[in-house]
Description:
The chain has eleven helices and six strands. It is of the alpha/beta class. Strand 1, helix 1 and strand 2 form a beta-alpha-beta unit.
Amino acid sequence: MQPYKIRVIVADDHPAIIEGIKQAITISTIEVTASARNSTRIIQLLDKGVVDVLVTDYAMPGGEFGDGLPLFEFIMRRYPDIKIVVMTMMDNPGVLRTLIALGVRCIISKSDDASHLIPAIHIASSSGQYYSPTVNAIVQTLDKFSGCEKRYIHLSKREAEVIRLYVSGMTINNIAMQLHRSKQTVSSQKNSAMKKLGVGCDADLFKYALEVGFVSSCSMSAI
């Protein structure tokens, strides 16, 4: 009788981190079947179907299928049986809320000990929920608000439009002129969107926009 094995793909754009993860999860019940450095390779491997759990970094630029939330949404839609463990350095409550709302139930902060990966992989394989301590502390603060972490954050079309233009480098005045709205209306829509996203300042708004794909890293560097 074959021993029980959870087949794992490890994805990170840094080879040294991939090797470190492999060493951290080398136990009898886990088998690393492959590794990937971008989303193009991840999808190639998932198409082969020899995996139970994908352990992946949140941010891996350069792949054909993007990274972060757009990539995870694509994977969960195309491969509904694949479980995901996300590793991340981000501590943005709005992004975590959206990630959880998407259905990612196992999240590990890179600032926490790598030993959290083993229970996360086992729990992910059985469709459970696991947050490492740093992530869990942030999730607990989300519980104090409206419970939005349990569903998608819905920005109105006008709010999303304002945020996209704002993080692209336009001022409130310029946005108002382009959209033919008053400055007060645009400012109100921006503030409303930030409240829904759980971000309290422009710096966090830019970080959120980059992480969820509202704007590319190239665009951000040009601002």
